[in-house]
Design brief:
Layout: H1 10-24, H2 40-69, E1 72-78, H3 97-104, E2 106-113, H4 119-128, H5 132-135, H6 156-162, E3 166-171, H7 180-185, E4 189-190, E5 219-221, H8 231-248, E6 256-262, E7 269-271, H9 273-276, H10 314-319, H11 323-350, E8 357-363, E9 368-369, E10 375-376, H12 382-385, E11 386-392, E12 400-402, E13 406-407, H13 411-418, H14 433-437, E14 447-450, E15 456-459, E16 463-467, E17 473-477, H15 495-502, E18 521-524, E19 527-530, E20 533-534
Parallel strand pairs: 1-6, 1-8, 2-12, 2-13, 3-4, 3-6, 5-7
Antiparallel strand pairs: 2-11, 8-11, 9-10, 14-15, 15-16, 16-17, 18-19, 19-20
This protein binds calcium ion (2 copies).
Length: 542
């Protein structure tokens, strides 16, 4: 008698064969020889039940086990943090012991770059795995669910949730102002939104700024004490509490994906006295080098990318004797943020979750503090594009550094690969798992940064090439000129280098998505518009 007609599953075939064998000759079967005094019918029922269980449920159980055994993800972001962290050796005074220890237990990327030098487009690129030149999202609005092209996109946390992860977010992960639809779909669980609180009654910097006298552009000691009053502290506390709970759940049914986003060192550069005390007084603060006349060999069009902004120019800082104090406040808020990262990492260890958790730390873009005559982001130069990027945990080399060019949008496929999730199609990042295993494993593709349609920079291991929307160019040799002081683009002996790098420029250049606003630049009827207003070069504030 043949009792089953099976599908093409090998283990099923083997089990069915065994069963048929047993039923054909129970006396001389694979069963123990001892007589159990059971009827042939009872044996048949037992075996059929066993077979159904093993074929139908066992694989599900195995799948569930596999899911539980998948690594957790701790996804930590900082806002507007440039490459000033201790281990990158970029500012001799900065103190970031917690980021340094994270880098020591994982892999640090020393040539990692954002896809957009501005919060919203950078974060949308990270979370969707798509470039600004693909989505058309270059400004502080719109958001990805408001754009036809991306409204149904599967974001990074959604992809993890779809693969059995419990997802949660605290603080600034997507750009601020989460919409109801995002709150419904992006993460399963939401902690505090985070923010810039608390605020002093009046701005601490009393002199009006040179362009937009924005309330957030301010710096100094506030509050005097009480770190726990600060939004970022509360976000870290939320993360610590979640980890406590996750650690206490003895047998979790799901791995977790926890996103924790800190606002510092985004302006306002407020924090308590103890973080300022880590640094010398203003007069001994080391300033980033910014030689006079550095922009003489830079195309005028570069000004269009940061035409009129709340962030003051270097000329304003110099005139008002605020350069050192702004840099000191930036350093202090970095150390405060670093301490919050430390609190989260400590709890992860205390709960014994560090062995099975992939940690990634990133910043959404860099920040100028005087270089090329400006402060803030919105440029295609190293100080605005380069970011700290650190991976640690299962599958990641310990104490390694990679100088290969990588992009923040590589995080999506990398985390998916490290977690053993199926490869996500239709995203533009490339997994950097090869570099996490062998840090200098070569990468062909350079890192691309875009600020508004048609303005791109291409950063390879050695070079930075910039092409602006009016066709003007810059080229820097990072082996000889790490500060990007000497523009080689007009020197014809570099035309081959430029031709090679230019091959990587995005060719699609999506126009500004409908609803684009804030820090957007476009050409309409032959006239360049900054935030919808015509640019008049003689009105330039330098
Ligand atoms: Ca930012
Ligand atoms: Ca120069």
């Amino acid at each position: 008698m043949k009792i089953v007609n099976v599908n093409h599953n090998n283990s099923f075939d083997n089990k069915a064969n065994t069963l048929n064998q047993i039923l054909a000759n129970p006396q001389k079967s694979v069963l123990p020889e001892k007589n159990f005094c059971i009827s042939r019918e009872a044996l048949r029922i037992f075996l059929v039940v066993f077979l159904i269980y093993s074929v139908k449920w066992a694989p599900l159980q195995a799948q569930a086990d596999e899911q539980i055994n998948r690594p957790n993800v701790l996804f930590i972001a900082s806002d507007d943090l440039n490459d000033w962290i201790g281990i990158l050796n970029t500012h001799p005074q900065v103190k970031t012991p917690n980021l340094d220890r994270l880098a020591a237990r994982g892999t640090l990327f020393t040539n990692a770059h954002t896809q957009a030098p501005l919060c919203n487009p950078s974060r949308i690129s990270i979370m969707t795995g798509l470039r600004p030149s693909t989505t058309g999202i270059y400004g502080l609005s719109p958001r990805h669910r408001q754009v036809e092209k991306t409204k149904d996109v599967v974001t990074l946390p959604q992809y993890f949730a779809a693969n059995g992860y419990r997802t949660m977010s605290g603080g600034k992960v997507f750009h601020g102002g989460i919409t109801p639809i995002e709150r419904k779909v992006e993460f399963k669980q939401w902690g505090p939104d985070g923010g810039h609180k608390p605020f002093p009654e009046n701005k601490l910097v009393k002199v009006p700024l040179d362009m937009v006298d924005h309330p957030l552009i301010d710096w100094g000691v506030f509050p005097k004490e009480g770190d726990s009053l600060i939004d970022d502290y509360k976000v870290a506390t939320w993360a610590v509490e979640q980890l406590e709970q996750l650690g206490a759940e003895e047998k979790r049914s799901q791995p977790f994906f926890m996103a924790v986003g800190f606002n510092k060192p985004h302006v306002p550069l407020y924090t308590t006295q103890k973080w300022f005390d880590l640094y010398p007084k203003e007069k001994d603060i080391i300033l980033p080098p910014s030689p006079e006349g550095d922009r003489d060999d830079v195309p005028d069009f570069a000004w269009y990318l940061h035409w009129f902004l709340p962030e003051p120019r270097l000329s304003w800082l110099l005139k008002n004797n605020e350069w050192q104090s702004k840099v000191r406040a930036y350093l202090a808020t970095i150390s405060f943020m670093d301490a919050q990262v430390g609190r989260v990492l400590d709890e992860l260890e205390a709960q014994g979750l560090d062995q099975n958790t992939i940690i990634v730390f990133w910043s959404d873009h860099g920040y100028h503090l005087g270089e090329k005559g400006i402060t803030g982001k919105n440029t295609l130069w190293e100080r605005a594009t380069r970011v700290p990027l650190i991976f640690a945990g299962p599958g990641v080399s310990v104490g390694a550094q990679s100088s290969q060019p990588v992009e923040l949008l590589d995080m999506y496929p990398t985390l998916a690969a490290l977690a053993g999730l199926p490869k996500k199609e239709e995203i533009e990042g490339i997994s950097i798992v090869p570099q996490l295993k062998e840090s200098e494993s070569p990468r062909k593709r350079p890192a691309i940064t875009t600020h508004n349609p048609g303005n791109h920079s291409v950063r390879s291991e050695r070079w930075r090439y910039i092409r602006y929307a009016d066709g003007s160019e810059e080229l820097y040799d990072h082996f000889r000129d790490p500060n990007e002081w000497s523009n080689l683009a007009t020197n014809s002996s570099y035309s081959d280098v430029i031709a090679e790098l230019a091959k990587w420029l995005p060719t699609d250049d999506a126009p500004l998505a409908p609803g684009s606003n804030h820090r957007v630049l476009e050409k309409v009827d032959g006239i360049w518009l900054w935030e919808n207003e015509p640019i008049k070069f003689n009105n330039l504030i330098r």
